């Protein structure tokens, strides 16, 4: 299924007809695996699994691009289409409309539209990752519709955002679990899930790291040769609160003498509620920001930053990339605020609650002084995609014992 996919534009067809994608040329007896991707961040993690599924003759990959992939101006579904055929699209959010209640409406649209998609595509497995509303919509439709559901990165903790509840809700809807760490595996089992269906596989975020080289001089220069990256995602607070937080951090970055000579790259946040506030704070600085960078270029940039001399670069904000990919790459990170509270973290991450200039300066210095040799992480060995594909190929999704959820406690 890898290759030229659907060539339409979901913005001009906000409620595409699944019938257009029925002719998937899937041999009889091949197990259909619908992998749902709803954002640029989780697509980067799902890519290794998608490739692993596509390599197996007994599996048929069906990629469903949903949610924020389809929202202007980024339209990151094009990144998905570059690597994979798109079996269907599921519009949810509406450009320019963000907020908790807008997400409620988007979730409702998504559940209904995923139901239609599954009815036509007839997947044997539906696979989702993480805790976003796209994953929750797909999981809800699969569970109610009677389709076997597999969940990647369940059992993690992210106490600082509303997504924490959705991640665990998806766990209870799923028949098959692929946690990234031993701690996450133990939490899923304590939630009453059958240990035989909980497979510790590592994080797919690690899978492609070894094959991606450092960003070359030309690409690095085109980004302004940054020595620090600012990436702050909203935490579900009102826009005014998110704006004040982002403005405070950006002011601290500007004020602190420790990084006054550094070159800052500002990445725009995801589409969660509160984005508009962060964007207002970024716009007020007058600095240029980047809406999107594809996964390969992003990892190449982080690797380049990790090798800078005399001081390594630093990632500042609250992205999970700082806790997972950066730990494996060797990049110092300053994690600010509550968004990643509860997550496992390695020595490369220095946490501060409030972005005062002095605290930020100390945190950056401390992060840079940690030896990369100490950055051992719990997220696996880079073979996650193949492990998941193997389980999907060998476990029967139509076994009544699997489809019928029973708590083990």
Structure description:
The chain is of the alpha/beta class and 409 residues long. It has two domains: 18-207 and 382-403, 3-Layer(aba) Sandwich (Rossmann fold), CATH 3.40.50; 213-374, Rossmann fold. It is 38% helix and 13% strand. The strands form two sheets. Strands 3-2-1-4-5-6 form a six-stranded parallel β-sheet, sandwiched between helices. A six-stranded parallel β-sheet has the order 9-8-7-10-11-12, with helices on both faces.
Short description:
The protein has helices at 40-55, 77-83, 100-121, 133-145, 163-173, 182-190, 217-222, 239-255, 275-285, 295-306, 325-329, 357-369, 384-394, 400-403; strands spanning 31-37, 59-66, 86-90, 125-129, 148-152, 176-178, 228-231, 264-267, 289-290, 314-317, 333-336, 349-352. It is 38% helix and 13% strand. It has 14 helices and 12 strands.
SSE topology:
Layout: E1 31-37, H1 40-55, E2 59-66, H2 77-83, E3 86-90, H3 100-121, E4 125-129, H4 133-145, E5 148-152, H5 163-173, E6 176-178, H6 182-190, H7 217-222, E7 228-231, H8 239-255, E8 264-267, H9 275-285, E9 289-290, H10 295-306, E10 314-317, H11 325-329, E11 333-336, E12 349-352, H12 357-369, H13 384-394, H14 400-403
Parallel strand pairs: 1-2, 1-4, 2-3, 4-5, 5-6, 7-8, 7-10, 8-9, 10-11, 11-12
Helix pairs in contact: 1-13, 3-4, 4-5, 8-9, 8-12
Summarize this structure as a short list of keywords or feature phrases:
409 residues, alpha/beta, six-stranded parallel sheet, 38% helix
The CATH architecture designation of the largest domain is 3-Layer(aba) Sandwich
| Average pLDDT number | 89
User: What is the CATH fold-level name of the largest domain?
Assistant: Rossmann fold
Distance between the termini: 40 Å
How do the strands of the widest beta sheet line up side by side? Answer: 3-2-1-4-5-6
| Percent helix range | 25-40%
Helix/strand-derived category reads alpha/beta
CATH class category label of the largest domain: Alpha Beta
Give the uncertain stretches in residue-range form: 1-22
Total beta strand runs: 12
Count of helical regions:
14
């Amino acid at each position: 299924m890898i290759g030229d996919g659907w060539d339409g534009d979901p913005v001009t067809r906000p409620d595409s007809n699944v019938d257009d994608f029925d002719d998937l040329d899937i041999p009889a007896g091949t197990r259909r695996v619908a992998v749902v991707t709803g954002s640029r961040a989780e697509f980067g993690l799902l890519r290794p699994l998608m490739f692993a599924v596509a390599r197996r003759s007994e599996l048929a990959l069906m990629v469903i691009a949903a949610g924020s992939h389809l929202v202007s101006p980024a339209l990151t579904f094009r990144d998905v289409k570059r690597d994979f055929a798109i079996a269907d699209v599921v519009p949810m959010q509406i450009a320019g409309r963000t907020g908790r209640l807008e997400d409620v409406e988007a979730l409702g649209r998504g559940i209904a539209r995923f139901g239609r998609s599954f009815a036509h595509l007839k997947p044997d497995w539906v696979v989702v990752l993480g805790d976003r509303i796209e994953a929750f919509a797909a999981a809800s439709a699969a569970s109610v519709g009677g389709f076997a559901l597999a969940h990647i990165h369940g059992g993690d903790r992210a106490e600082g955002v509303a997504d924490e509840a959705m991640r665990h809700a998806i766990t209870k809807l799923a028949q098959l679990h692929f946690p990234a760490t031993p701690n996450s595996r133990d939490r899923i089992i304590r939630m009453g899930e059958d240990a035989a269906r909980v497979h510790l596989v590592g994080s797919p975020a690690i899978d492609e790291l070894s094959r991606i080289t450092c960003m070359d001089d030309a690409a690095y220069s085109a980004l302004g040769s940054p020595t620090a990256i600012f990436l702050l995602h909203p935490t579900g607070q009102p826009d005014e609160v998110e704006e004040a937080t982002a403005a405070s951090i950006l002011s601290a970055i500007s004020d602190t003498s420790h990084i006054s000579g550094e070159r800052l790259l500002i990445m725009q946040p995801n589409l969660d509620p509160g984005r508009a506030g962060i964007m207002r704070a970024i716009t007020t600085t007058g600095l240029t920001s980047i809406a999107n960078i594809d996964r390969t270029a992003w990892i190449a940039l982080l690797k380049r930053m990790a090798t800078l001399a005399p001081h390594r670069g630093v990632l500042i904000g609250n992205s999970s990339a700082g806790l997972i990919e950066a730990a494996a790459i060797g990049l110092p990170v300053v994690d600010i605020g509550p968004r990643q509270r509860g997550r496992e973290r390695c020595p490369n991450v220095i946490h501060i609650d409030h972005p005062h200039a002095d605290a930020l300066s100390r945190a950056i210095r401390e992060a840079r002084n940690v030896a990369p040799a100490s950055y051992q992480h719990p997220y696996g060995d880079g073979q996650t995609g193949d492990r998941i594909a193997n389980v999907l190929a060998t476990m029967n999704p139509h076994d009544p014992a699997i489809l019928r959820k029973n708590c083990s406690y």
